Amino acid sequence: MAGAEKFYHPYEPYDIQLQFMRALYDCIEQGKIGVFESPTGTGKSLSLACGSLTWLRDHKRKEFDESIASIEGDDDEPEWMVQHSREEKKNQVIQKRAELETKLERIRQHERKIRDRQENGPPLAKKRKLDDDSSKDADILDDEQFALDDYESDDEGTKTLTANNGNTELGLSKETQALMQKLGYGISVLPKAEDMEAEDELKIYFCSRTHSQLSQFVNELRRIDLPAAIPAIQEEIKKKPTLSEELKHLSLGSRKNLCINAKVSSLKSMTAVNERCLELQDAKTPKEKKCPFVPNKENEGSVLDFQHHALAKIRDIEDLGVLGKKLSVCPYYATRPAVKPSEIVTLPYPLLLQKTAREALGLSLKNHIVIIDEAHNLMDAISGIHTVEVSLQQFHLARAQLTTYLQRFRNRLKGKNRVYITQVVRLLDSISSFLQSLDAKKGAEGVLQATDLLKGKGVDQINLYKLMHYLQESKLARKVEGYVSVEQQKQQKLDSSGSTKEVTVLVLTHITNLFMVLTNPAKEGRLFYTVGEEKTQTKVKYMLLDPSEHFRDIVEEARAVILAGGTMSPMSDYMTQLFPYLDKTRITTLSCGHVIPTTNLFVSPVVSSHNNTDFTFSFSSRNLASTMTALGDSILRLLPSIPHGCVAFFPSYSYLEQVVSHWQSTGLWAKMQKAKTILKETQQTGTEEVLAAYTTAVHSSPRGAFLLAVIGGRLSEGINFSDSLGRCVMVIGLPYANPNTAEQKAKTAYVAEKAIAAHGAAAGATAARDFADNTCMRAVNQAIGRAVRHKNDWSAILLFDGRYTQKRIQDRLPGWIKASLREGSGRGFGEVEKGLKEFYARRMAG
Predict the structure, then answer these.
(1) Where in this protein does the record put region Disordered (predicted)?
(2) Which residues are CB-neighbours of 515 under 8 A, at least 6 positions away?
(3) Single pTM value for the model
(4) Going by fewer Cβ within 10 Å, which terminus of the chain is more open, N or C?
(5) Residue pLDDT, tens place only, 132-142
């Protein structure tokens, strides 16, 4: 098969991979929204890369040809002059691109020579010592820099701080701003004219949840050999007969992942790293204590070198960190000017989904392609980013930190600073008083209105909009937390390892996010309270109920948006929860089959026990002793037939503990332990620890092992139970959210209200039920997707609950699972047991 026909896939693609890549190519070409499901083990990542990059190079080549062909002369101009104009423009474009390719090729050749010699080679730039231990307190900043500047502006539309003429977001001087703008950094909230005019290559933004998942994708990119976007470039530069143009890829990450300043990167939390980084760049920080790796006039050449080296070969986050250390330049900032000339940018969820993060990085999605992998939990991720939860203890801590700050700088505060800080204290006291007054006897949880939290003394006289503007401009939270942190470092002694302990909890910044919600509560969000067992654990929480509006700007800016995952079913949820405002003709969906034959799967509901006890694990019946006993008896009968490893997923940690306790009291637990080694996931145990113990037990014991886990827990996503680790996956019940909690009631009511507004009164109940079913089955599909990870794998999937025989539930299973669902399933335990034994006999014999 020719390269173009197979989308330059490095291997001979499966039919389902070709189907996936064709659908992806067409979706991008037509500028649509795509929801793509391709089970784990079917080469989804490589298909995403090959399909999208083939389109990208094809489109660039087509645009180039059309731009040349569009050149026309005047009516009286001879054809040879028109042709000359076309050739001239063509040569200009080729020359411009050739210069960059030549520079990148030199870097590649240099690095290849280094690898061939198997030597580290000389450093690319004079190394700066990364960690000076001559003074353990060198990173402790003077507290004077945390004093507030005089604040005189109440104009919400402007940004004027009298003592700081630099960037109000980063605290940079005018000189540093000018240099960073010259280098192409997007440091300001509003792009400068020169940024907007700079050439921004058409590109793909590829996003996934974690850096480890992105690193796996980067490894796939290294396998792909694409033709040049403009073939003549390759002839000009390399004189290669293959006409292969190297892919220009860039990895973006957080400060925590890219920081090379040891005294900053060693801080435990991402928030602490972010705050310390900004403190070290503050205009008032003495020069000798500023971060030496941030771009400045001294390392301008190294920054440009970093940009070219970053694009010269495909590098992941770790590679960029090594490169930054070698060049003594900050990778977090130095990657920014390399975004525009890149063809594909990989980045984690928060950097794409948060508008403020995109603006801080200077990222524009306008007319580019956005691909979000592992998108099954995208809606939860968006809601999580915009959800704020604060405990009474945190309010008390914030007030204590603010008091400490005031004791130091009280005499320096005057005018508006004094007024607004007093207002912050009043707000803290008002919310604390409300939480303190809550009584569990009157309800352990409930819904709040913003006004409930704003009834404290003097709060009605506060202009919240002006106060929020003040907090943003003055950076009060950062200064308070920075000062308290420095004071604690000064006072504490070094621990045994010789490093200072990080003890400050950065709460005021977190609480400021809640203040923002109270100032402008969104109609798609709700406020809740929860009374804790201890009073200090009582919490207020803002929850986003509808993620569609916060994702809408991405959809409207990008040329095409692709959501992909191994288990995206049920897909209808994305239409109603993420794209309710789009015409259905703009959305493309594809659910691929698996590479395994249907005979490699045994899928069946288990509707009753061997003694005919019905299995319905609803909230009202699952706690019955008879139900838990029947479940244990049935599993005990099946375990001896199951080879190697078996994993059972329960609907919650609390129910798992309840069932295990019951089995232990009835003797069932001891009998199960004779059949297989049993391990159990808990909220306290680490994922790696449990997984390692389970793997060892499966491989070392002839009986195999039985792992008890939880749907939605750490073992139900991203874990590979392939081959002998997952010869059987059991799902106990349907993990519906508790319908009686305040949060779930609010979510359901909101979904119903939207449906009624759009389709009439009859649609409300249906929409609410669909929402509950879809949320439940997304979690189930993730759990059962842990098994069968490659084309030769095989497994059984047992669904313990009579409701799994219902059409509306089965319709929400992935297509490849439904294809193996046994006909007449649900005929009783005896039929399931017999079919399971026959399945294992065939597989073990084959």
Answers:
(1) 109-138
(2) 427, 464, 467, 468, 471
(3) 0.84
(4) C
(5) 443 444 445 56
